[in-house]
Structure formats: C-alpha cells, structure tokens
Amino acid sequence: MTTCVCCTNWMLKSRNKKITQNGRIIIMASKACKRHGNGNVANNGGKWIRPNRRKAIYLRDDLKCVYCGKGIEDGIIFTLDHLVSQEFGGDHSSSNLVTCCKSCNSAKGKKTQRQFFMWLRDQGVDTDHIAKRIRRNIRRKLPLKSHKSRI
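Predicted structure:
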C-alpha cells in the first residue's frame, strides 16, 4: 500500500514507489488517491496548478526565464520551477515558484538551488545577477486579477 502525498490516504497496488526522508511511502506516477482524483502526485503535468495562477506567475516574472533571461519573444517554452523541490520540503506557494524555460528547468533537474548555481558558475555564468532577479520576483505580488487583460 502507498499513501497520497497530500492527504496520506491509502492507495493500493502502486508500481512506482519512493521512500521519503521520513520513511513514508508515497506514490510517484501510477495510481491516484480516491479523495483527490489525480491527487498531489509527482509527474502529473500542468494539472498541479491552476492555469490562472500559472499565468500570474509568468507575468510576475515579466514573461522571462529567471535563469537565462530569455523571454517569450525568443520563442521559449515556459515551465514553472520549484526553488526548493518537493523532495526537500518545498511547496507550491508562489514564493517557491519561478518562471523557467524548459532547457534551464531540464538542466536544473533534481539539483538543489545551491548545486544548480555551482554548476552554472562552472559554466561561467554570473549567479549573483540570477539570485537578485529571483529575490526581486518572489517579493512581488501575483497579478491574479489583472492577468486576463495582459495576455
């Protein structure tokens, strides 16, 4: 048996399991919690955040990747990146989410922010500028009501 990440409801016969740091078994990709339908499971695409909140975060970050600075005019595909991943106790709060292009998100992978910045420094990137951009963006309020008129 496994439990749902968000509510600890029991689920049966999961193929893909993972042990968390506190020893609880959580579901990773196959079955879902009865209470939450798809539930709060990893690898569930864009369904873990509502579209209007996703767009508000994109707008808060000026429609640019916080890591490389490329914007929508460069033709990038946006994703959201957790600054602190869920595996390390991060959540879906707007202060933990930033706009990121797919290539930067893939490069970061499962690295912590510190590990990713060390990797970027090895590539010759100035991470001080990136850190300032991230701090500035997460302090901003989300434009939840005005995003419809801006997109």
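Summary: The first helix runs from residue 51 to 60.
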